[in-house]
Amino acid sequence: MVRLGFIVGLIALIGVLLSGLAAYRVHDQELALDGIALARAIDVHASLVQDRLTERELLARVASGLFKAPSTVKANMLQPLRSAIYAFKTDFVVAAWIARLRPNELTAAEAELKAAGFTNPQIRDFDDQPLDIKALDKPINVLMDVEPRNPETLNIPGRAFDRHSVVGPMLAQAMAEAKPVASDPIPLLRINGPVGVVLAAPVFPEGASEPAGFVTFSYELSSLMLTNDDSSLFAVALKDPRDSNDEFTANEQGVVTSRAVRQNGPAPSMVRTVTFGGRDWSLDYYAKSNATVRAQQTATIVAAIGLALTGIVCGLFGYVAYNNLRLSREIEVRIGFERRLTAVIDELNHRVKNILAVIQSIVTRTLRHGADIDVARELLIGRIHAMSNVVTLLSESQWQGVKLKGLFESRSIPHADRIAVNGPDITVSARAAQSLSLLFFELASHSDEGLSLVGKHPHIVANWEVTGEDQDTVFHFRWEEFNTSEATRRVDSDFGLILLDRVAPEALGGTAKRYFTDVSYVYELTAPMDTVVDMTERDRTEQFSAPVRPAKK
């Protein structure tokens, strides 16, 4: 089990390491793929915005090039350009002609505006405030024509934009640089109008160094630079060219608002620069989803799947290995049981043969030629009964020996009630038990011949003791029949004499002697304790009787 647990733990450790490695790789790959996808989408968007801006700037250049010796006081200067403008692009908010008029041309310009049907033909300031024409001593930039003409744009012509904070400097820069110039983001048409930029292209008459006016196009900022679909990976914002701490963003309806860049807020994922109207515009791109969090979630899922698979593999492996181990142990137990059974049978055969040999000897010696049949039959039955009794006692103790006092029970020897037993209750070996059981029977069976000299049956004392220590321990047994004599005691049979004098002492590795005193018959047996107990035989029997256990894995 320890080895199986170690293997399962090793597999689990490897599975956890592989799951962690897979999660780490997936995390890095997800971050890399998200970064590549986001960078590609941003590059595509920035390229599309740049193409759109280039087209609008080209439109302004083409429009300015179509003017030939324009008359600055005319109010329908865009009439020749209308078909060309709409054919080229139609997403501008307002296209306008801003004429650069000298003070002496302002009166004629007002008459032209009135004749063109504009609602307020008066030359005025950009905020519709009156303008003191007589105080002017240099040319001013006046809006003379617009496209499209609708109720919202008809009141715009007549305004002068020189003092406008955004348009005025833009026109001055376009005149100085002689190329299209874009304005800062401003509300278009009205104060709360859509936020956009104005692109002004100067118109120079042939051979002139000063422009006759400007063709301008106004574009909403959302459609020009901030357009983006809902399924895109990012949101785009335009850095305010006047304040780096502000930026413009557009919502889903295209409404552009300005917001302050938070100092502790998320930094832009990427920044791209586009060119429009002679200036650079910075576009900030913010990822809509947190790539790091998404990569962590994906890595967590991969790690969970890896751990689950590891658990399943460990469980299946442990289940199969445990079943195989259990089956192997059952087989080992069965093999061990069969081996033990074989050994027990062999041992039993050996002991049965010994017992049969003893019984054969008993029968042969008891029923010798010329013996009294009645006496022989009685002795034979008693001796076999004694053998049977000791075998029963050994079987009950699984052949691990017999208590010495148990051999004096009434079922094993006759006249047990007349025997006084005294001695330590030691356990003798199977071999010693068989010899002592027959010995006690022979002694007891010959003690009942008539009465003693005092008119009573003999009183018997069986006494034993153990003396010495360790290897020198000796077993002493003494059998004494009181109130008896050689004349009153039954004469021992030939088998009895052989058993008393030779078989029992030799079986126990000791010596014996028998004799009569004035009042008793004595039998003494001395043997080493090693043969009486026979630890070798007991250990072997315990090994046979112990339950079979599988070897440790």
From TrEMBL:
InterPro entries: CHASE_dom (IPR006189), CHASE_sf (IPR042240), Sig_transdc_His_kinase_HWE (IPR011102). It comes from the Bacteria. This is histidine kinase. The keyword Magnesium does not apply. Residues 171-225 form the CHASE domain. Its EC number is 2.7.13.3. It is an enzyme of class 2 (transferase). Keywords: ATP-binding, Kinase, Membrane, Nucleotide-binding, Phosphoprotein, Transferase, Transmembrane, Transmembrane helix. The lineage of its organism: Bacteria, Pseudomonadati, Pseudomonadota, Alphaproteobacteria, Hyphomicrobiales. Pfam families: CHASE, HWE_HK. Its main location: membrane.
